[in-house]
Amino acid sequence: MTDDLINKYDLRVPRYTSYPTAPHFHDGVDGAVYRQWLSELDPATNLSLYFHIPFCDEMCWFCGCYTKIVKRYEPVKEYLDAVLAEVDLIADALPARMTAKHLHWGGGSPTMLKGEDWMATLDKLRARFDVASDAEIAVELDPRTATEDYVRDLERAGVNRASIGVQSYEPKVQEAIHRIQPYETTKQVIEWLRAHNISRINMDLMYGLPLQTTAEIESMIDMTVDLRPNRLALFGYAHVPWMQSHQKMIREEDLPGAAERWEQFSLAVERLKHLGYVQIGFDHFAHPDDPMANAVETGELHRNFQGYTTDTAPAMLGFGASAIGYLPQGYVQNERALKGYREAVFAGRPATAKGIALSDEDTLRRAVIEDIMCNLTAEVDPTHFARDLEKLKPLVEDGICTVDGGRVTVSEAGRPFIRLVASAFDAYLGTGEGRHSKAV
Hints:
Layout: H1 3-8, H2 31-39, E1 47-53, E2 55-56, E3 68-69, H3 74-93, E4 99-107, H4 115-128, E5 130-141, H5 148-157, E6 161-167, H6 171-177, H7 183-195, E7 200-207, H8 214-225, E8 231-236, H9 258-274, E9 278-280, E10 284-286, H10 291-298, E11 302-304, E12 307-309, E13 315-319, E14 324-327, E15 330-334, H11 338-346, E16 352-357, H12 360-375, E17 377-379, H13 386-391, H14 393-397, E18 401-404, E19 407-410, H15 418-423
Parallel strand pairs: 1-4, 1-13, 2-3, 4-5, 5-6, 6-7, 7-8
Antiparallel strand pairs: 8-10, 9-10, 11-12, 14-15, 15-16, 17-19, 18-19
Helix pairs in contact: 3-4, 3-11, 4-5, 8-9
């Protein structure tokens, strides 16, 4: 890929973890609408449950998540009480006791919860839902605060997958992003997890961080593969200080340019593939024996707010402040402010602040975008999508994708620009107030 093309396509586009994307949600979808949508679900529908824990011990300057810094446990416990009350509220709105196949805790840092509260939370969920015996119960875990006793508590609660944030092992980079996490700390926690039957390990790595070099990227990949994770995510740092004010602490002059970011990404991808990992979409990787690698082969890969997934549930219920959920009828997002979230829940109404109902056109375009993002190809009606296909002509000319009638296929060389191909079918792009991360 030439420098000219890298600069040409160094654009900001959505990550397409949903369609329409979150900037287009509006307050016309409120708690009453959500309650109605819940009541209309088929009782046989399998559910995913997502829980947002918006607290951390300290702020990492690279972070793009919604989180708050707390030094006492009382605010965390008060928040958890609201989340458990929300579980009752939403379960009561369902047409029947329903089955949950995937449970995921994100943040912030879910490991802010004490061990005994994990057990109380899972007990509540098992009381209100049929949690499948083979359900995936996944937790995003901060190795800096975990102990073996804590990992043992997660095992007792039934957690069977852990996602470990790493970002970088290089001390000067860790200092530049305000996250000091020695390699030995990460390695020790993974050993504890496996010793306590939490053997499904995800790891998150980043490129494009301040002071990060291409040489360090190669070392980071090798050190990570030595830990034998089942899945890896390789994220490009999104510098959006106008959205995340703490990112202003990162010196822009320390950030690599577009060409350097491309070199870092390319090296990491090739190294991971050389070491036996299967590339999933554009930024995920899986060990060949992981179900996600099989989902690529069978065409059953999906994409949701956690990124690429094997989760096939048609409905995800989001719990906690700012949590997003989806149902066949559309998307919903909870109140972001903790005070407003708690007040709504304890008043006995869903904390839904905004969302969007899916039109038939939205559903059609969502399927096309997901096919492109997951399978690198999609079949479309060339008449209906004539204008969208026209937008792809520059990408076709540059070898990023091909168009054969109504068949759009992303080339292997164009895989890093897959979001640009998908964006051609985004009828909302260019409207609203959303600003997005760079394509590479």
